Amino acid sequence: MKRRIREQFRLRQQELAGLDIVVLIRGPLPAGKENWTPQLARLFDKLLAKRRQD
């Protein structure tokens, strides 16, 4: 999971400049880790959209 988070961060590093991001995961991860990449991308999209509003 850490690797996927780092990959997504690196893909958007220029857009996320100046932000401190902490990712917390509670409990065990469900099976099907391949589904996490699109979910992480959506979370970063939401974070960037919120940043643009401010």
Q: What does the model show?
A:
This protein is mainly α. It has one domain (2-53). 52% of the residues lie in helices and 0% in strands. Helix 1 (2-11) packs across helix 2 (36-53). The longest helix has 18 residues, at 36-53. The protein is elongated and about 35 Å long. Pfam families: Ribonuclease_P. GO terms for molecular function: ribonuclease P activity; tRNA binding. Keywords: Endonuclease, Hydrolase, Nuclease, RNA-binding, tRNA processing. This is Ribonuclease P protein component.
H/E series: HH
Radius of gyration: 12 Å
Enumerate the spans where pLDDT stays under 50 for 5 or more consecutive residues: none
What is the mean predicted local confidence, pLDDT?
85
- Extended strand count: 0
Terminus-to-terminus distance: 29 Å
Beta-strand percentage range:
under 5%
Number of individual domains: 1
Shape: elongated
Category by helix and strand content: mainly alpha
Count the helices. How many?
Answer: 2
Helix percentage: 40-55%
The main pleated sheet reads as: none
Pfam families: Ribonuclease_P
Protein name: Ribonuclease P protein component
Keywords: Endonuclease, Hydrolase, Nuclease, RNA-binding, tRNA processing
InterPro entries: Ribosomal_Su5_D2-typ_SF, Ribsml_uS5_D2-typ_fold_subgr, RNase_P
